[in-house]
Design goal:
- It is a single chain.
- The chain has 6 helices and 8 strands.
- It has a single domain, classed as Rossmann fold (3-Layer(aba) Sandwich).
- The radius of gyration is 15 Å and the shape is globular.
- The protein is 33% helix and 24% strand.
- The two termini are 24 Å apart.
- Helix 5 links the parallel strand 7 and strand 8.
- Strands 1-2-4-3-5-6-7-8 form an 8-stranded mixed β-sheet, with helices on both faces.
- By secondary structure, the protein is an alpha/beta fold.
Length: 212
C-alpha cells in the first residue's frame, strides 16, 4: 500500500475509530482522507477502490488516512446514514491536527467511494478550511444527504457507465444540480473491476493539478 502503514485509533462520537495511516515514501507535504463504501454491505477501509485512491494520494506525497466507519472492524457504534459518520470525521480531523500539526497545516484532500462519497461531500460542506480537492467515485451522495451542500466546481466525479449499484442516471442528477462534470468510464461497473489502474491514474492526474 505504501512504504509504511500505521494502525491508529481515534475517538469518534460513538467510541473508538479504527484507522490506518498510509505514509508516503517522501516527507508528507499534506494529507488525505479516503472513505469507504456502505458499512452494512461489506464496505471497509480495505476496499480495492479505497486503497487504489489512497495509493494515488501517497504517490503524491500525502499522508493518507483510511478509517473504518462505525460498526466496521474495531470501530465502535452503529451505522448512522452519514450523519454520525460525518461528525466522526470532523473529530478525526481535529485529533490528526493535534497529532501532526506540521502535516495538517499543508494541503489536504477528501475522497469517498459510494457511501463514502456522501460523507466526503458533507464533510467538505461542513468544514471551514476547504480541501484542495474533492474526489467522489461511484457517487451516492443523494441517498444519504442530510444537509445543504457546498460543492466546488472542480470536484472530481468518477462513475462507471454500467454501475448497477448506483446507476449513472442518479450520479448525473446529482451533478446536474451543482453543474459538475462527470468522468464516465465506458463499460465500468460500480467497483471498477479491471479498471483500477485507470482509476488511480485519473485520480493522480487530478490531484497533481490541484496540489500545484
Amino acid at each position: 500500500m505504501s512504504s509504511r502503514t500505521e494502525h491508529i485509533t481515534f475517538k469518534g462520537h460513538a467510541g473508538d475509530m479504527d484507522c490506518v495511516l498510509d505514509w508516503p515514501d517522501q516527507t508528507a507535504r499534506g494529507w488525505a482522507l479516503v472513505l469507504h463504501p456502505h458499512p452494512l454491505h461489506g464496505g471497509t477501509r480495505d476496499n480495492k477502490v479505497v486503497t487504489t485512491i489512497a495509493r494515488a494520494c501517497t504517490r503524491l506525497g500525502l499522508l493518507t488516512v483510511r478509517p473504518n466507519f462505525r460498526g466496521v472492524g474495531k470501530s465502535e457504534g452503529e451505522f448512522d446514514r452519514a450523519q454520525g459518520e460525518t461528525a466522526d470525521m470532523q473529530a478525526l480531523m481535529e485529533q490528526l491536527q493535534r497529532l501532526h500539526p506540521e502535516i495538517t497545516a499543508g494541503p489536504w484532500v477528501v475522497a469517498g467511494f459510494s457511501f463514502g462519497s456522501a460523507v466526503a461531500a458533507q464533510l467538505h460542506s461542513a468544514v471551514t478550511r476547504k480541501p484542495q480537492a474533492l474526489v467522489l467515485a461511484g457517487t451516492a451522495v443523494q441517498r444519504f444527504r442530510f444537509m445543504e451542500l457546498d460543492m466546488p466546481k472542480d470536484a472530481l466525479l468518477i462513475h462507471g457507465e454500467k454501475d448497477d449499484v448506483v446507476p449513472l442516471a442518479e450520479a448525473m442528477d446529482f451533478a446536474r444540480e451543482f453543474q459538475l462534470p462527470v468522468m464516465v468510464l465506458p463499460d465500468a461497473e460500480h467497483f471498477f473491476h479491471g479498471r483500477l489502474v485507470e482509476l488511480r491514474s485519473i485520480v493522480e492526474r487530478h490531484l497533481a493539478a490541484a496540489l500545484l
